[in-house]
Design brief:
CATH class of chain B: Alpha Beta
Strand content of chain B: 25-35%
Number of strands of chain B: 6
Largest interface: A-B, 31 and 30 residues
Number of helices of chain A: 3
Order of helices and strands of chain A: EHEEHEHEE
Helix content of chain A: 10-25%
Shape of chain A: globular
Number of domains of chain B: 1
CATH architecture of chain B: 2-Layer Sandwich
Largest sheet of chain A: 6 strands, mixed
Oligomer: heterodimer
CATH superfamily of chain B: RutC-like
Structural class of chain A: alpha+beta
Structural class of chain B: alpha+beta
CATH architecture of chain A: 2-Layer Sandwich
Largest sheet of chain B: 6 strands, mixed
Strand order of the largest sheet of chain B: 1-2-3-6-4-5
Number of helices of chain B: 3
Strand order of the largest sheet of chain A: 1-2-3-6-4-5
Helix content of chain B: 10-25%
Distance between the termini of chain A: 33 Å
CATH superfamily of chain A: RutC-like
CATH topology of chain A: 60s Ribosomal Protein L30, Chain: A
Radius of gyration of chain A: 14 Å
Radius of gyration of chain B: 14 Å
Distance between the termini of chain B: 22 Å
Order of helices and strands of chain B: EHEEHEHEE
């Protein structure tokens, strides 16, 4: 691996999917000012226990987890550049947006929404790329 | 200052699927030190033909071809930052993990796997973002 590529700390044990689920993936990778996150799911950040629910509850949990992951690595939700939002049904598009707006109220990132099958019966998964660090004014 | 944007291609012309099939995308694009690869499906490196098979054989072939394309552009699987994997059925998720474990034994990239319907009866398609290994 290149010296300027960093595998980032999952911050909380439950966000380390390699450890809790045995997945061959890193939680997040940083390179040249960009943070590439693995698809985030609605899991308990302390235990990794899956928290299946509605699109609303899962999306809240995912954003809270992304906040922990990004802030724990010096970035934040407002620094997200691009999101791939995976949902189980396109019919829930507006439900996703309602929660999404609460976490990304101003200048939201670029986004694409796909209707796909998500692992283990989850309804939402958010795959994000964020800018590292904090905004300088 | 604007970053240079260049098209990357596999050294093996048989694996240049977009050109060989007249598709409106490139195998990959380099911007600065980042490589953005198109979604790859299983192709035979000797003939360029589609090579459908089991999920394990398709995933293995794709990652071998991805390795070739990355090496043609001054990178390698070791410098993959993020992958997105599309699988025809999430029941095969564990098989994806098993193949990934072989190709990315340490410091694996960030990853998202999801189930979607793919073209031509393929079972898997993978796209990635990688870093160029300068110097």
């Amino acid at each position: 691996m290149l010296s300027n590529v960093a595998v980032l700390d999952p911050v909380k044990p439950g966000l380390n999917f390699a450890r809790v689920f045995g997945y061959p993936q890193s939680s997040a990778i940083e390179y040249e000012g960009l943070i590439f996150c693995s698809g985030m799911l609605a899991v308990d950040p302390d235990t990794g226990e899956r928290e299946h629910g509605t699109v609303t509850t899962e999306t809240h949990r995912i954003f809270k987890n992304l906040k922990i992951l990004l802030e724990g690595n010096g970035s934040s939700l407002s620094r997200i550049v691009q999101v791939h939002a995976l949902i189980y049904s396109r019919l829930e598009y507006d439900v996703l947006n309602r929660v999404y707006r609460q976490y990304l109220p101003n200048h939201p990132p670029a986004r694409m929404v796909w209707q796909v099958t998500i692992e283990s019966g989850f309804k939402v998964q958010l795959d994000v790329i964020a800018a590292a660090g904090q905004q300088e004014n | 200052m604007a970053l240079a944007r260049t098209i990357i291609e596999p050294r093996n012309p048989m694996l240049n699927a977009s050109r060989n099939r007249g598709l409106p995308h490139s195998p990959g694009v380099r911007v600065g030190n980042l490589l953005f690869l198109s979604g790859m499906v299983s192709a035979d490196p000797l003939t360029g033909e589609h090579k459908q098979g089991s999920l394990i054989s398709e995933t293995t072939q794709i990652l071998e071809n991805m390795s070739h394309l990355l090496e043609s552009a001054g990178s390698s699987l070791k410098s993959v930052l993020k992958t997105t994997v599309f699988v025809y059925d999430m029941l095969e998720f564990q098989n994806v993990n098993d193949v990934f474990q072989k190709f990315f034994p340490t410091n694996p990239p960030a990853r998202t796997v999801c189930g979607a319907q793919l073209s031509f009866g393929f079972k898997v398609e993978i796209e990635c973002i990688a870093a160029v290994e300068t110097e």
